[in-house]
Design a protein that fits this description.
There is one protein chain. The protein is an alpha+beta fold. It has a single domain, classed as Immunoglobulin-like, CATH 2.60.40. Helices cover 19% and strands 44% of the residues. It has one helix and six strands. A three-stranded antiparallel sheet has the order 1-6-3. Strands 2-5-4 form a three-stranded antiparallel sheet, with no helix packed on it.
């Protein structure tokens, strides 16, 4: 009976771990001067670029996505203005939009993302 109880507990934790890992995924995003289409370090006015992120495992339903910024390299001679947002979330991935404006110059920016379902 004791072995059966231990086996049941182990199976429960294995199943629970599989469910939790399937509902949550995370990763990093980044872009820098020299990347195709990068324009956040040139000119003035509003400039933006996007990054496509694909989930390793597609979700069964559209997840919620959170972003963080962990690194930014910007010209110290100008105000540091930027905005990072999530666009176009699907079961397969999402788009990160990075934007700067006025005379700000961003040479690189990166961060983490977390996708989850409830």
């Amino acid at each position: 009976m004791k072995k059966l109880s231990v086996l049941a507990v182990v199976l429960f934790f294995v199943a629970f771990s599989a469910i939790v890992s399937a509902q949550t995924q995370s990763g990093q995003w980044s872009t820098k001067a020299g990347d195709s289409g990068y324009n956040l370090d040139t000119n003035t006015g509003e400039r933006a670029m996007t990054i496509e992120v694909a989930f390793k495992n597609p979700y069964e339903v559209k997840p919620k996505v959170m972003l963080s910024v962990t690194q930014i390299d910007a010209d110290k001679g100008f105000n540091n203005r930027y905005n990072v947002e999530v666009l176009s979330v699907s079961r397969d991935g999402f788009t990160v939009k990075i934007r700067t404006w006025a005379d700000s110059k961003v040479y690189s920016i990166s961060g983490y993302w977390l996708a989850y379902t409830e």
